[in-house]
Design brief:
The chain has 11 helices and 23 strands. With 451 residues, it is of the alpha+beta class. Strands 1, 3, 15, 16, 17, 20 and 21 form a 7-stranded antiparallel sheet that branches. Strands 2, 5, 6, 7, 8, 9 and 10 form a 7-stranded antiparallel sheet that branches. Strands 12-13-14-18-19-22-23 form a 7-stranded mixed sheet, sandwiched between helices. A hairpin with a 2-residue loop joins β9 and β10. The radius of gyration is 22 Å and the shape is globular. 50% of the residues are buried. The N terminus and C terminus are likely disordered.
Length: 451
């Protein structure tokens, strides 16, 4: 099967603990050969895909041909044995983003773009070094969000069962369940373990939310982008056009806790803000680069400030990096997550799936943000107390009671009035925000993490 640009994944989250992984693949559930063979043939099929397309030609210093011999010399009597062997084989790459999904897991992932999920609303990844299960972010208006689970929380137990040695697929299987059933997550935060008893729920997700904010410079368009799903670009286009009709003076684009999604979604949205310039370059293992550029299709040239934080990852980093490097927007918040890898997803076997890291991506200035992240132009740290307060009272998000938003409004005001500056600044966590000028955001505009 041909993997198109729309089938490329940019997400820091290996699994969204609703019922699916973060993004739509744009691929069918059938493999190139519509595999219907033995379990051993499935193992070889996966090996072949990695051999041909994995981003690192050294396979992270693994003798990949020896791996093939090792696993094909085994006897497999069932698909489950093959699935276990494949996961074991892929672990040798030491890449949490290259992963195998059994038919149910693959189906769950494909459900993602339906906009209706069942679970607790956590986005989860496995730390590449510690192998611990780390929360990227809770999805807003979900049980996990309401309970107060935070980005960077470490899940140590699920219903009392230790997560040591557990991968994301195993974790999601334990956390998923029927609506109204309960699951207890034990979270490690600041060296202290906390139990969260969560009731699973049906979750509806729309990637874009917008509102009009009052300010000293007139009405400002506030857009919250939760994730780069298949419908993110169309919803963003509608939001910008609607706000343009309302004659807003400028924009604040909130990418906080947005873990990424479809590569092409980030490119399409960048083109809505950029008239010209490079958006992103991707480079595969043989050094072939694919450069994406703006196409003079911008929907607005009004001043723009982008909010980012440690939960802004992958596709969010492509968008924010493109806007920053092209000097189209000013970034406010904290350093982004730092995930500069691209995955393709394809069907294998009888309905199973495989996500493979196939390329690295670079911002327009040639920056490789993998692990490093993107530094904002204005750094505004939130204390844990401030984060919890914003979660307890979501009406304060995107108001002057939200320190990062308050700084974004201050920066936007200077842009609109012509009082711009090139010096980066840092705001202290407890710095008093400007006097309340912005109207409170509508509840639907509250920032959250998207899948």
């Amino acid at each position: 099967m041909v993997i198109t640009k729309r089938g490329l994944i940019l997400s820091a989250t290996a699994v969204a603990l609703t019922a699916v992984t973060l993004v739509n693949t744009g691929c069918s559930s059938k493999s190139l050969a519509s595999f219907r063979g033995s379990p051993k043939e499935l193992v070889d099929e996966v090996w072949q895909i990695i051999d041909k397309s994995y981003v690192d030609g050294t396979f992270n210093q693994v003798d990949w041909k020896a791996v093939r011999n090792e696993y094909l010399n085994r006897t497999y009597t069932s698909d489950d044995e093959a699935y276990k062997a494949i996961r074991e084989m892929l672990k040798k790459l030491d890449d949490p983003y290259t992963r195998f999904m059994d038919p149910q897991e693959f189906k769950n992932m494909q459900v993602d773009t339906s906009g209706e999920l069942t679970g607790v609303g956590i986005q989860l990844t496995q730390d590449e070094e510690t192998k611990k299960l780390v929360v990227i972010s809770p999805i807003e208006d979900t049980p996990a969000f309401t309970a107060g689970i935070l980005a960077k929380d470490i899940i140590t137990k699920i219903d009392g069962k230790t997560t040591e040695g557990m991968d994301t697929n195993q974790a999601v299987t334990l956390i998923r369940g029927p609506v109204n059933s309960e699951v207890t997550l034990t979270i490690l935060r600041d060296k202290k373990e906390i139990d969260f008893k969560l009731k699973r729920a049906k979750i509806e997700i729309h990637p874009v939310r917008k509102s009009v904010q009052k300010s000293p410079i007139g009405e400002v368009g506030y857009i919250r982008l939760n994730q780069f799903s298949a419908n993110a670009a169309s919803e963003m286009k509608s939001a910008i056009k609607d706000l343009e009709q309302k004659k807003v003076t400028g924009y604040i684009l909130d990418l906080r806790s947005n873990p990424g999604g479809l590569l092409y979604g980030s490119i399409e949205i960048a083109r809505m803000w950029l008239k010209e310039g490079t958006i992103v370059s991707t480079v595969d293992r043989v050094g072939e680069a694919d450069k994406q550029t703006a196409n003079k299709g911008e929907l607005t040239d009004k001043p723009l400030v982008v909010l980012v934080d440690g939960g802004s990852a992958s596709a969010s980093e492509i968008l924010s990096g493109a806007l920053q490097d092209n000097k189209r927007a000013v970034l406010v918040g904290t350093k982004t997550f730092g995930k500069g890898l691209v995955q393709s997803v394809r069907g294998v076997g009888n309905g199973a799936g495989l996500a493979v890291t196939i390329a690295k991506y670079f911002t327009p200035n040639g920056t490789d943000i993998n692990h490093a992240g993107i530094e904002p132009d204005f750094k505004v740290e939130l204390t844990d107390a401030q984060k919890q307060e914003l979660r307890r009272d979501r009406d304060k998000i995107a108001t002057t009671a939200d320190p990062q938003y308050a700084k974004a409004m201050e920066v936007l005001t200077k842009q609109v009035t012509g009082k711009t500056g090139n010096n980066k600044a840092e705001s202290k966590p407890n710095a008093a925000p400007p006097k309340p000028n912005a109207a409170q955001a509508q509840p639907s505009a509250a920032p959250s993490k998207s899948k």
